[in-house]
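Deviations from the work plan: none for this task. Representative record:
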Amino acid sequence: MLKTRLFTPGPVPVPDRVRLAMAQPILHHRAADFIPLFRACREGLQRIYQTQGPVLLFAASGTGAMDAAVSNLLSPGDHALVVRGGKFGERWDEICRAYGVRTTCLDVEWGTAVDPARVADALAQAPDIKAVYVQASETSTAACHPVREIAEIVRESDERLLVVDAITAIGVYDLPMDAWGLDAVVSGSQKAFMMPPGLAFLGLSERAQRFVERSTCPHYYFNLKKELKALPTDQTSWTPAVSLLFGLVETLRIILDEVGLEETWRRTEKLAQATREAMRAIGLELLAPDAPSPACTAVRVPEGVDGPALRTHLRDQLGFTLADGQGKLKGKILRLAHLGYYDRFDTIACIAAIEMALAAVGYVHKLGEGARTATELLRD
Amino acid sequence: MLKTRLFTPGPVPVPDRVRLAMAQPILHHRAADFIPLFRACREGLQRIYQTQGPVLLFAASGTGAMDAAVSNLLSPGDHALVVRGGKFGERWDEICRAYGVRTTCLDVEWGTAVDPARVADALAQAPDIKAVYVQASETSTAACHPVREIAEIVRESDERLLVVDAITAIGVYDLPMDAWGLDAVVSGSQKAFMMPPGLAFLGLSERAQRFVERSTCPHYYFNLKKELKALPTDQTSWTPAVSLLFGLVETLRIILDEVGLEETWRRTEKLAQATREAMRAIGLELLAPDAPSPACTAVRVPEGVDGPALRTHLRDQLGFTLADGQGKLKGKILRLAHLGYYDRFDTIACIAAIEMALAAVGYVHKLGEGARTATELLRD
């Protein structure tokens, strides 16, 4: 009876209540009973996004909403600035180029945050830049970019957008879309929303909606103009993923009404802090020590330790699924999640498992010191 | 205690077993336990498609796979022939034009099937046509187009594709992809698959895969080249909708291994036949008498009857949700589903409800004659 535990930074475990909510009998999305469901989803999304503007929903994974945030905001030949500090920064660049958008990439060492002054310089050098694309939390490196400071710089012009991949930031920490002046904010169901994958969300400022009107990139399934027009009629353009919407209403109720958004941020941050201290206590190095994301923690596999063997031991012997590194970090780091449906005891158990697995593959440390540190820090 | 019953031609009711299967704990799509799940989905899809080729899966609704079947097969400036005999025929035209594909539309009276000779003529007149887009079953009118005959004509050239929207045909009736030489076949989870919406499927012939290599339309989320490359590694490019895949495995088990594909077609056809006879017995006119789809039956609202009032009575007083007409048929027809999770007794009950609602809104007929007819026809 090996119990299995999922610690990847999305998907994260789905609460039983949410899984059972999704098992409700299906309803027809053009029938009257869809309206209260859809409204509850949209209102909850506006609260978690901290926006008065529309948050669109797509039957897609997060990459779908990223695609839409390029193909429906810009036009071929437009110039975009991309902050590229990990696998998902690379994705912004790829999407832009797929649609004929010219990119200038600010390459940032993986695991570090971009210096906002570099964004300011790049914008000063190329005033034709129409949009800046960035990750709030770069999931591949567990580092956060300073979105608030970047927004202040981008906001010096009203003719420029800041587009934020907040897939592991919305519901993870305070990222107020309206207050900071973010123009397009992407997220997805399988992260802080504690849902299965299959829903993508996209919040749009008024400025972004003006860009939608002007965009000429070809697209069909992701059509923001059409979705924005359908929204006041309580509809989506295409058939929505109704069973996932049942789950979304339930999870938004938990996050917003029962736990509270601030408490959710606080819990996630506490788990992340304790994990970082625990990793340091057993001699492990963080990948992103200076700008750590509370969404997940990335630790370097210690010298002499076989990364894949460590992950395999964790999974097959101990039942813990953690995430590998992506791209050039493959096999070199371990990532464990804090966002979503985790509490103190989940986190302590995962740290203990990492310690046991390290010991099993020959890493010498004071076994249990990580668990002890986390227990102490997570007492209250 | 008004019991509610869904009779729209997708979404259709989801069997309890499938709903509970989707409530399983989530797993990570890059972890080892994803592989058997994904393989079972793909193998089942190949069986239901009757193809040896790949059937791709997308986190999207059916329109997403329709988009992919244009934006990944053709290039801007290419010429396509579109059979336009309903709302979904119009959609093929819209998608083509969204990507700069020139279209010639064969307009077909709504509710009738296209004459294959017209397809042959159109191809003879425009030898530069690279692809023919058609619906197998045009859900908006409940009419079937003669895909087999069209395929024989299209197959006279190896440099031309036949792309079939089979969203209400796959799993509904015999539509053997390989045997008939269909090149790209689209379907979606909320139809014969008896699943919630949120998954789209796309089968591709070898010829279609060659077109994928050459296509230059811009796209990112729907990237068939990337998906075809990921398939042999048991992966999708982007995060798949894992909970829906749990349901897909279960529903494919029911359809393919327990009920059987041929028995599924036979049952659907029987329900459709009996419904058509029952509708005639109470004096109602079919919209597509000459080429009726077994997926659903569309009946004209009788003269003097208020269509919306009839549907409202069915829904609010009797608990039956049926589909309205779409586009220019809005308010003029009723559509009731046969594809998916329906048996004889569901169908008889729905016919009885239609009769009661007709009587309530003042249509004079021999009440119960429809239910009687269906009961007689569905005895065995």
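The mean pLDDT of chain A is 97.
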